[in-house]
Amino acid sequence: MREILGRRLQRLRDRLKSRLSNPPAAHDPDGDAASLLDAALTCATVWRWPVLPGVGRAGGDGARCACPDPDCVVPGAHPFDPGLLAATRDPRMVAWWWARRPGAPVLMATGGAAPCAVSLPAVAAARAVVRLDAQGMRLGPIVATPTRWSLLVAPYSLERLGELLYAKDHVPSSLRFHGEGGYLLLPPSPASGGGHVHWEREPSVGPQGIRLPEVEELVHVLVEASSGAPGGGSRLAY
To answer: Most C-beta atoms within 10 A of its C-beta, which of 38, 105, 127, 201?
Structure first.
């Protein structure tokens, strides 16, 4: 079954790549179209994570978001049309989207059957990962931009997260949570603040699938690490 699926996906990739008669150059801020397509298909079919295209950039220099908001704070890196509820694992839909918008960023809808995530500033995250590794913690995939890292965790509910954080004296606003109803920008998409998203630790599929730690296992260390980051915030900031 795996071999049949692999052959079908390869044919799908080949057909779509043949339609990309003018792929973006290496310096194009929208990134490489074939790589974005491959990433979206891998997420949807191999890792079984629901994905959708981000809104992308507009303008001659690609500096502004393609959404109607002139003051968009995450230019290009959020859902718009289609909306977040359209996220899917169907390779035909994924191929249809990226055939029409080959430079679109790859977004994963978090929660439900998909991973959730906790993100914090890159310097603080690097310190936290060193500490968690020293404790023998088996971390899951880590998504990195030039300014922030996102640690993927097992799905959690808003109620469970609220109880966990309510017990903390202080929750820095620099610590952000991507749970059900949220989304996460995935590699190799362009990052909203410049540069590209990459895997600091790539997903590794084992016999039980991709290993994801529980949020309770990480949150204490991540709160401590992000407390010294800019934008300290309050216990309600999450």
So the answer is: 105
d(CA 147, CA 130): 17
**pTM of the model as a whole:** 0.83
Task: List the Cα angle 187/194/43 in 5-degree steps.
Answer: 10
Residue 224 pairs in a beta bridge with none
Tokens describing residue 216: 């309770």
Contact in structure between 133 and 127 (CB atoms under 8 Å): no
d(C-alpha 63, C-alpha 193), whole Å: 10
Token code pair at residue 37: 């397509």
pLDDT tens-place string over residues 41-91: 999 999 999 999 999 998 766 778 999 999 998 999 999 999 999 999 999
The residues near 219 (Cβ < 8 Å, ≥ 6 apart) are: 118, 164, 165
The token pair at 231 is 């934008």
- The count of C-alpha atoms lying within 13 angstroms of the C-alpha of 50, restricted to the half-sphere facing its C-beta, is 17
